[in-house]
Each structure stands twice: as C-alpha cells, then as structure tokens.
Amino acid sequence: MAPALSLTVEEYVSSMEKLMTDMRFTLYNILYKRILVIWIFSAFMILLGILFSKKQGLLLFGLGVAWLICNAVAIFLCMWVKLKLNKSLEKCMASVNSSLVKHNLLLGLDDRGKISCHKVNLCFLFFDNTNCVAHLEKLLNEKPDERAENGAVFDRDTYLRDTEGFDDVEVVVAGRNSVQVGKKGERAEKLFLHYSQRWAKDYLRRRLDWVVEDVYGRQDYASNTSPRHLKGALCPCQYIEEHLRNKRQRESLNPCTFTANPCHWCD
Q1: Per-residue pLDDT tens for 225-236?
Q2: Measured between alpha carbons, how far apart are the two ends of the chain, in Å?
Q3: Between the CA of residue 53 and those of 60, 61, 66, 67, 247, what are the distances in Å?
Q4: pTM of this prediction?
C-alpha cells in the first residue's frame, strides 16, 4: 500500500465483508436497475395477452383501461422502491465508511450499468474529512434561518429527520434548564457519513467539478468557483451546505402564492 495509507489488510477485508454481507447492498445490486425493466416487460406481455384474447367490445375496452391504470400505478411503485433502495444504500455505505474515515478514506459506489446492475464500481477516495467535519460542526451550531419565504418556513432538523432519514438529529429536553442530548462533533461526523455516498457518486461522475469542458474540449472554470477543502470540486461540506440551502429555497416556493415576480429563481 502507499505510505500515506494506514488501512491494514485486515481492516480492508473486514470492511468489504461488511459491505458484501449487507442485505441493503445486495438488494440494490439486484433490483435497482432491473425492477422497472422487469415490470415493463411483464406489462407488455400482459398487454399482448389482452389483445390476443377473444374478448371484444366493452369488455376489451375495460381491460385496456384497467391495464393502463395498473401500469401507471406499478411504474410509480417501482420508482418509489428505487428511491427506498437508494436511501438504504446510502445508510449502508455510511456504516461502511464509518470505519474508513479514520484512515482518510471514503468508499463510493457508482453504477455504470444501463439495463443490468453488473457494472457496479466500488471506488476508494483518499480524502481528509477533518476540515469538513469541523465546518459541519459550525453549521450545526448556527441557528437555522427561520425566516418565512412565501409563507413557508424550512425546518432543517425536521427535513433531515423525516425526509433524509438522518436519525441523529439533536434532541432538546425541555425543563428548567434545557439539556441538549448528543455531541456536536458526533452529529457532524454522522451528517458527513450520511451524505458520503451521494457526494462520492456525484464526484465520480464529475458533476461537482469547478473546471468544466465544452463541446470542443476547451476547459473553463465555473462562474461560482470557491474551493474550500477540495481544489477541483465541491468538498462534502460545501455539497451538504448547498443541498440544504437549495432545499430551503425550493420548500419556500408555493405555486399557489402570487408575488410581483413570477420567476422565483430571479429574486
């Protein structure tokens, strides 16, 4: 191994065994890219069965309408299952990365398969997370912006707990003296690990690069270049901060609220 790496062979084998034996990783690997294809093929076979049946008239029309309704519901159900599989994979990768971050390593999964899930790439990223965790700790220490935009208030802790499934939101025990349960440093590290798979996937697909290439291969820097802990792309703490900031802006957009500026993004 490289001299800069402190990961031992035993720890590497233990991390890989933990990943390979996790049912969440197995279900993602089997179903994520296949469940929708399987249903589309099944729905097509059902449609052929209906068309080549000897039904006629209103009965055939009713079967066709029922097939359309069932097909639409099943597609939405497949997309919901894919979302749940992706969320469970992020928790799985967070549990694996919890033992790798002390060696300045992050493990990211990038699926490059088109129809099947056989092209799954496991990529190790050498990254020192100390500065990012410290910045996230400061972010968590700051009081969330509770200003209402278009009549909506974005609750960061509620969003992390209910939508993101981040199960380590700080608990405040009310009483004569309010007590905050949970250490900020631990919460910041867990928040970092919670987004580690999402950041690694976008980073591996070069979605976070500061330097972009045009169709002619010429390189140019993005207009919002502001490196923090990573020179060529958004670092994890920037990624998390931008995600929460953009989520707050989107949550505040109420299409039923009329304002003088019809374009909410141009304020």
Answers
A1: 567 778 878 888
A2: 52
A3: 9, 12, 15, 14, 50
A4: 0.73
